[in-house]
Design a protein that fits this description.
Layout (H helix, E strand, L loop, with lengths): L4 E9 L4 H9 L2 H5 L4 E8 L13 E7 L2 H8 L2 H12 L5 E9 L12
Antiparallel strand pairs: 1-3, 1-4, 2-3
């Protein structure tokens, strides 16, 4: 198994602000790609497809980090903190809702002692 951390960050823009949110998120990519431990950092836009009829927020970041510590360092960068303060937390921000979740590829109790 690995120490990788996977993050899915989903965003629901306020009506009429989808393009502004997508561009603001794209602007985060170049600096993030230069960070230690960034293995993948890609903003995507939901599209309709007959083989994938599920629902989702319109904009989703797919992130893979080499470790939890490096992901946390990313989250604490001024640029990332400023994005959330301006676009998510501010009452007049462009984002109505955000959902950021992290995942592991390690099974439960993968390193538990064998009895």
């Amino acid at each position: 198994m690995s120490s990788k951390l996977y993050c899915i960050a989903s965003f629901k823009p306020r009506p009429g602000r989808e393009e502004a949110v997508f561009k603001a998120l794209q602007a985060l990519e170049p600096n993030t790609h230069r960070e230690d431990g960034c293995l993948q950092y890609t903003v995507t836009r939901h599209i309709d497809h007959p083989n994938a009829p599920g629902t989702s927020y319109p904009i989703v970041f797919h992130e893979v980090w080499a470790s939890r510590e490096l992901f946390e360092a990313h989250c604490n960068r001024r640029e990332i903190q400023a994005f959330f303060a301006t676009h998510v937390e501010a009452p007049d921000g462009d984002i109505e809702e955000a959902n950021v979740c992290v995942y592991t590829d390690e099974p439960i109790d993968y390193d538990a002692p064998r009895g």
